[in-house]
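Re: that chain you flagged

S.,

Sorry for the slow reply, it's been a week of failed gels. I finally had a moment to sit down with the sequence you sent. For the record, here it is as I used it:
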Amino acid sequence: MPMQLIDSHVSNRPHQLFLALTLALIPASIYAQTASTGPALSLSKGSAQPYPIKPVRVISPYPPGSSADIIGRIYAPRLADALGKPFIVDNRAGASGNIAAEIVARAAPDGYTLLLLNTSIVASQPLYKSLPFELARDFQSTGMLGLAAYLLVVNVSVPVKSVQELVALARARAGKMIYASTGIGGGLHLTMELLKMQTGISMLHVPYKGTSTAVPDLIGGQVETMFGSAPALLPHVRSGRIRALGISSLARSTALPDIPTIAESGLPGFESVSFTALAVPTGVPRGVITRLNTAINQSARAQDTITALANQSTEAAPMTPEQTTSYIRDEIVKWKKVVIAAGVKGE
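Prediction finished late last night. Pasting the structure tokens below so you have them in one place:
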């Protein structure tokens, strides 16, 4: 049964009672210092076995080497060390992550099938007319793995060196500038749609099947601008083949302190951050969620995890299940508005 959610202190955005990933309230004392340690899951009276007692499958919605997949693979061995059983990443790419989400939604609610949940899946609710799952009904959050901002870049032939100059050029060339994304309804596409909404500019969208095909065309000048992940774009920025204009987080990245935020470049409040979280099917016992959250947050605070994530321009973000749910709830509301305003339709 869905239960009330606590508000997150990690977001200043007003919470709306929209889709809520169901999680039960627990005393705040359980989360003193890190996450709760939680009791072993009792399977029968007089007998208790700790979770997990067999390997855990982590369903990745994207191909190996994608940002969310890499983050999942950073955590998998650390969760295995913490909980004593293998965490096996299983790639089930396609349909903006919805293939993977459906697998997890239909899995037994025992904590042995997890979903790498991120922005693309969150955007799918308003993007598609019908889906075989609902986030509010079918999933529970266990914890946040990391947050990563996007880079806004242009081909070096585009005569701009700032976000404001790009906006001015796009206005002057209304509807003629071409931007790339890695697919309709994905995080990169919706981030550019958010920029268009907040500035009133018009540009032509060319969706690609992935970064590996979009970036070469950006370098070659077939497209003029795009948002992308820092790991995919920075080598080309540093080699001088593309130019970075801004980063999509509210605060500058500690890994990229010289790149200004879009918010400080004339668009106060602009924010688009790719999140990666772990979710389970609704009905997983509270004890399992507690143990998973403990292991996730312990892993997130470890220096080797922080370093590995930083190499992906991602920041560790330990949260309780409730804080993770609240963060995702805000993302659902935010991206629904963008999808509707932009008239984006799923393919």
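What I noticed first: Confidence is low (pLDDT under 50) at residues 1-47.

Talk soon,
D.
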